[in-house]
């Protein structure tokens, strides 16, 4: 169970970093397109630093990636010369979908690990109670007797 949880966490971190990199890549290309085409409504919309995205929570990261993808699709015919095409858009969408799925798996794995830790803690407490109530008096009796 621990190995599976670690595997999910490692995949989650790797995919999350990949999502942040794609956001940066797409946002820079869209911003360049907006500036050269004088689309003022897009020019300041996607000003993210890599550091900001890496520290953003998952919901913010997903919202940002979906917004960028939606805007990219609006201008797909015009933005191709900036290195964004149907293939790169599909790849970005796949990363978003994988991240959403893995995020669900991670939450489930985290809950299983938390439940297991609670169960182990309960077992240790019960063992201590059993020892103190049943075995400790027996040990004292045999030592004194």
Can you describe this structure?
The chain has 145 residues and is an all-alpha fold. The chain has 6 helices and no strands. It has helices at 2-36, 40-43, 50-55, 58-74, 76-79, 86-144. α1 (2-36) runs parallel beside α4 and α1 (2-36) packs antiparallel against α6 (86-144). The longest helix has 59 residues, at 86-144. It is rod-shaped, with a radius of gyration of 26 Å. The model has no long low-confidence stretch (mean pLDDT 82).
Provide key terms for this protein.
145 residues, 6 helices, mainly alpha, rod-shaped, 86% helix
- Helix/strand class: mainly alpha
**Largest pleated sheet:** none
Give the strand tally.
0
**Roughly how much helix do the residues carry, as a percent range?**
over 70%
Shape call = rod-shaped
Per DSSP, the total helix count is 6
Unreliable stretches: none
Strand-residue fraction? under 5%
Q: What sequence of helices (H) and strands (E) makes up the elements?
A: HHHHHH
Q: What is the end-to-end distance?
A: 47 Å
Computed Rg: 26 Å
Provide mean pLDDT, rounded: 82
């Amino acid at each position: 169970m621990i190995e599976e949880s670690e595997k999910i966490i490692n995949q989650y971190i790797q995919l999350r970093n990949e999502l942040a990199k794609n956001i940066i890549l797409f946002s820079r290309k869209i911003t360049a397109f907006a500036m050269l085409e004088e689309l003022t409504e897009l020019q300041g919309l996607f000003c993210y630093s890599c550091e900001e995205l890496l520290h953003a929570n998952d919901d913010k990261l997903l919202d940002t990636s979906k917004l960028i993808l939606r805007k990219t699709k609006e201008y797909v015919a015009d933005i191709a010369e900036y290195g964004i095409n149907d293939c790169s858009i599909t790849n970005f969408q796949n990363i978003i979908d994988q991240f959403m799925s893995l995020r669900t798996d991670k939450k489930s794995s985290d809950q299983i690990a938390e439940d297991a830790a609670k169960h182990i803690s309960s077992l240790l407490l019960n063992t201590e109670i059993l020892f103190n109530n049943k075995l400790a008096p027996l040990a004292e009796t045999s030592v004194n007797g």
